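Homework help board

Subject: predicted structure for assignment chain

Our instructor gave us this sequence and asked us to write out the predicted structure in token form, then describe one feature. I got the tokens but I'm not sure how to describe them. Can anyone check?
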Amino acid sequence: MSQATILVADDDAAIRTVLNQALSRAGYQVRITSNAATLWRWVAAGEGDLVITDVVMPDGNAFDLLPRFRKSRPDLPILVMSAQNTFMTAVKASEGGAYDYLPKPFDLTEMIGIVGRALAEPKKQTLAGADENAEGMPLVGRSAAMQEIYRLLARLMQTDLTLMITGESGTGKELVARALHDYGKRRNGPFVAINMAAIPRDLIESELFGHEKGAFTGAQSRSKGRFEQAEGGTLFLDEIGDMPMDAQTRLLRVLQQGEYTTVGGRTPISTDVRIVAATNKDLKSLINQGLFREDLYYRLNVVPMRLPALRDRAADIPDLVRHFIRQAAEEGLEAKRFDTAALELMRSFPWPGNVRELENVVRRIMALYPQDVITAEIVENELRAETAEPDDAPTTISSRPSIGQAVEDNLRRTFAEAGETLPASGLYHRVIGEVEQPLILAALTATRGNQIRAAELLGLNRNTLRKKIRDLDIAVYRSPRPQ
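My token output:
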């Protein structure tokens, strides 16, 4: 049985009693106090093998003690408890050198497990240079689901481990990546984000790795890629599930070798960036369909983080609403107050668009309604409009999927329907044929059957077009010009 001594400091008598009983049953010797001065005296005298302390005590703050603990006894593991339960609390605990942070209320079994690991492991290096007076918080919420996110982020800030963030659209994946960068060891470097779904597929490699002058038509000068722009900082690869296979191969090579070449270049360039990837897709499903490299997945998924949907952290909605009100007021909108019934109604809404949708609704209400107090009736009207789906809404070019995306979606379904087996051979020619026939038909229709004009439109030789019309058995009808 362990004879390690645990020093416990907490102003709450009930918590002191519970911890004393649990730690004693686990075989530890326990010394308990309710004030910071006594705890510091014990530590300075060399007593105790581990400290468990609340942040706020009658005569001081644990965050003020942490630097003194680190200077006096750098190898002493410290567990910080807090009922404040904010992202900055977790960050300050990590920056102050705490071994771990536990939000109140906590699970006693988990606490005992952390104590055992802390006593068995060598002390981790602390993160220096933190801005303790940072204003505002990048992440909002005190729910249990968010506490796990805060704790994981606090641990990752001391490392350069690659992180894979998953979650539904609108859950704040880029916000989390920025928080990890802004409060991590690379905070003095650049944060560069690239959305794979927003870049034409044939330009992704140039966007990532840059290109040399003359590398392709239109490349009139050398251009830096996102890897070069992010040197010494963090590169955020959003919507990584939309990355084409050839670009995936090049990215894997960079992660394996730590260097890359520009498009059209020959000299390898070393890279020093932290990679954070994000997706709202099921990458394992894409792997099974042959649309995502398994080896790249394991390179990116070193530390997985699943962001909770807003419906799974509904307790955070009042805090989020107040946060968005403050932001909008700073931008010039008139500040509002949502009454209790309005907040309860918002808490019960499923929010399919997650935090992004909530922010949009709050801002819209602030802009459209002159009332100082927002009632449940106003919120109900806006949420009803939010869920309305007009049947006669026009389809715009921007709302339609691209041809490439439509083909990719079709192939995903094809591979999914095939299950463990593969589709019949000849897939390439079948797909090309399915795309080619409607393309030629559309060109002929647009030119009213004029094959010379259709060939010019398609960029084909006239004889080539005629051969394709015969091979594809396309019937050509020449329509008269409108009078």
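Reply (TA_rk): Your tokens look well-formed. For the description, you could write something like this. Confidence is low (pLDDT under 50) at residues 123-136, 395-399, 479-483. That's the kind of observation they're looking for.
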